[in-house]
Write a structure and sequence with these properties.
The protein has about 280 residues and is of the alpha/beta class. The chain has a single domain, classed as TIM Barrel (Alpha-Beta Barrel), CATH 3.20.20. The strands form two sheets. A seven-stranded parallel β-sheet has the order 3-4-5-6-7-8-9, with helices on one face. A two-stranded antiparallel ribbon has the order 1-2. Strand 5, helix 4 and strand 6 form a beta-alpha-beta unit. Helix 8 packs across helix 9. The chain starts with a strand and ends in a 12-residue tail after the last helix. The chain binds NADP nicotinamide-adenine-dinucleotide phosphate. NADP nicotinamide-adenine-dinucleotide phosphate binds next to helix 10.
């Protein structure tokens, strides 16, 4: 699994991590999803993303169970506070609840899930305190436009680690403004929903172009898509997979490096489109 610098945090992270949204919450499918996460960790996908929102806390609990017994320092666990909870006191309390559910003494990354009504400065003040208390190593934002991302960073003494945003082959809008701004400020971009609900696999002419790049490398279309999304320094992706075979396929994408010709072919098949507001789910 390739790793690279995660923004200005000083840590290196695998280019491909693991998402947990919509993870099955009960029965055999939940157990399989937990096995998939553990297999992902063995394959190097140690950046695992969750949120207090997912399953109203249930997914954090399931993740906590899944990682029990894994040496904590091997993992990079990220979770998120809901905007409605993101007052100073609300953030501090939400973080405690998340830590309890995750059965962790600290998370590696704490994110504001999307911009909300509470003043950003207040949320960032809570984030600073959580960092000082050792309850999170790094902090970041999610679903932030470039200006708001830079504003959030300005309220912090330590670097804003990342902005986690929607990015897939059929939604490349962040390449216009957000990625350049993130690069200028040493902020990593974490691509969520990297498979875009499978939209990139539906359009047949585009799919053919992607598959021919994939075939050249003995890879699958999904692996080529993940390699494209993580092709530059500062770009990471967190596909979610509740099935072990999907985890295996996604992990192997972390070994795949596209050349300039491959990148150009995929970019031509999936045009960037015009600049516009940040797309979200
Ligand atoms: P995604 O990762 O693009 O797609 C997940 C879907 O793809 C699941 O149905 C999964 O199936 C399937 N899949 C995964 N690997 C596959 C493979 N190799 N072959 C075939 N199918 C495969 O979508 P997402 O869950 O929306 O996004 C990823 C993560 O980003 C989330 O889980 C969450 O952690 C984060 N996220 C954050 C935000 C935010 O606002 N910050 C928003 C959305 C998502 P199985 O599960 O059955 O394996």
């Amino acid at each position: 699994m390739r790793t690279k610098a995660f923004g200005a945090t000083g840590v290196e992270l695998p280019v491909i991590g693991q998402g947990t949204w919509n993870m099955p919450e009960t029965g055999g499918r939940a157990k399989e999803a937990q096995r998939a996460i553990r297999r992902g960790i063995e394959r190097g996908m140690v950046h695992i993303d969750t949120a207090e929102m997912y399953g109203s806390g249930r997914v954090e609990e399931l993740l906590g169970e899944a990682i029990a017994g894994v040496p904590r320092e091997r993992l990079f666990i990220a979770t998120k506070v809901l905007p409605g909870n993101a007052s100073y006191r609300g953030t501090m309390a939400a973080a405690e609840r998340s830590l309890r559910r995750l059965r962790c003494e600290y998370v590696d990354l704490y994110l504001l899930h999307w911009p909300g009504a509470h003043p950003l400065q207040e949320t960032m003040r809570a984030f600073e305190m959580l960092r000082e208390q050792g309850k999170t190593r790094f902090v970041g934002v999610s679903n932030f436009e470039a200006d708001a991302m830079v504003e959030a960073a300005s309220y912090l003494r330590a670097p804003l680690a990342c902005n986690q945003v929607l990015y897939h082959l059929c939604e490349r809008g962040i390449e216009h403004e957000l990625i350049p701004a993130a690069n200028r400020h040493g902020i990593a971009i974490v691509a969520y929903t990297p498979f875009g609900r499978g939209s990139f696999l539906r359009a047949s002419a585009r799919r053919t172009a992607l598959e021919s790049v994939a075939t050249k490398h003995g890879a699958t279309a999904r692996q080529a898509a993940l390699a494209f999304l993580t092709r530059e320094p500062g770009l990471f992706a967190i596909p979610k997979a509740a099935r072990v075979e999907h985890v295996e396929e996604n992990a192997a994408a972390g070994e795949l490096e596209l050349d300039a010709e491959d990148v150009a072919a995929i970019a031509a098949a999936f045009p960037r489109g015009e600049p516009g507001p940040l797309a979200t789910l």
